[in-house]
Design goal:
The protein has helices spanning 3-8, 28-32, 36-44, 82-101, 135-145, and strands at 13-17, 22-27, 60-65, 69-74, 110-112, 122-127, 161-162. By secondary structure, it is of the alpha+beta class. The protein is globular and about 45 Å long. It is built from five helices and seven strands, in the order αββααββαββαβ. The strands form two sheets. Strands 1-6-5-7 form a four-stranded mixed beta sheet, sandwiched between helices. It has a three-stranded antiparallel beta sheet with strand order 2-4-3. The chain has two domains: 3-20 and 79-162, no CATH class; 22-74, no CATH class. 31% of the residues lie in helices and 21% in strands.
C-alpha cells in the first residue's frame, strides 16, 4: 500500500528512527546506476522528492573516500507530508534531549513519542539499541501502540518506553 493511501485510510503507521542524521556510504558503481533524479539532486542540491518542504535538506555527497566510495547525506523524513515530517523531526529533537539527560542503563530499546497527535494515526519511535530490532519486537510495539480495531494511537502505559530482548 502506498504511503498516501495508508494516510488517507488513517491506517496505523509506526515510523522507527535511528540517528538524527543519515549518512550512507555508496559504492561508485551503485551511484552510477542510480536514477537520474538522484544525480540531479546531487548536482543541483535540490530536495530529491521535489516537495520543496521548508527546512528540507537536499540529498548531497558529504565526502568521497577515494574513487570507490561516496558518503551521501539523506534528508530525514522528506517522504512524509509537511506536518507529519515536522512532528517526526520534533520527536527526534526531544529524543536527543532525553538521551542527554538519561543514563544509558536506564534507556529502553525503543523510545516512543509521548503525545501523539489525535488527528493522525502515526507514531514515531527511536531505536536505541545497537543492531536491528527483531520482527517480534516491532510487532509487539505495533500491537501495544495500535490496539486491534482502533485507528487512533494509544498512549503507552506509564512512560512511553518499550523494552525488547
Amino acid at each position: 500500500m502506498a504511503l498516501d493511501e495508508q494516510l488517507a485510510r488513517r491506517a496505523p503507521l509506526l515510523v522507527v528512527l535511528d540517528a538524527p542524521e543519515a549518512t550512507v556510504p555508496v559504492l561508485s558503481e551503485e551511484l552510477a546506476r542510480a536514477p537520474r533524479r538522484v544525480h540531479a539532486a546531487l548536482t543541483r542540491g535540490e530536495p530529491m522528492t521535489g516537495s520543496g518542504t521548508p527546512g528540507s535538506a537536499p540529498l548531497c555527497a558529504t565526502s568521497t573516500r577515494g574513487e570507490e566510495i561516496t558518503d551521501l547525506r539523506v534528508p530525514l523524513l522528506d517522504w512524509l507530508p509537511g506536518p507529519l515530517r515536522r512532528r517526526g523531526l520534533d520527536f527526534l529533537a526531544e529524543s536527543e534531549e532525553t538521551l542527554a539527560r538519561t543514563p544509558r542503563a536506564l534507556l529502553p530499546a525503543l523510545l516512543t513519542d509521548e503525545n501523539p497527535a489525535p488527528s493522525a494515526p502515526v507514531r514515531f519511535a527511536r531505536r536505541l539499541l545497537p543492531g536491528a530490532l527483531s520482527e517480534a519486537c516491532l510487532a509487539a510495539a505495533v500491537r501495544h501502540l495500535f490496539p486491534a480495531g482502533r485507528h487512533e494511537p494509544r498512549q503507552p502505559v506509564g512512560a512511553a518506553r518499550l523494552t525488547c530482548a
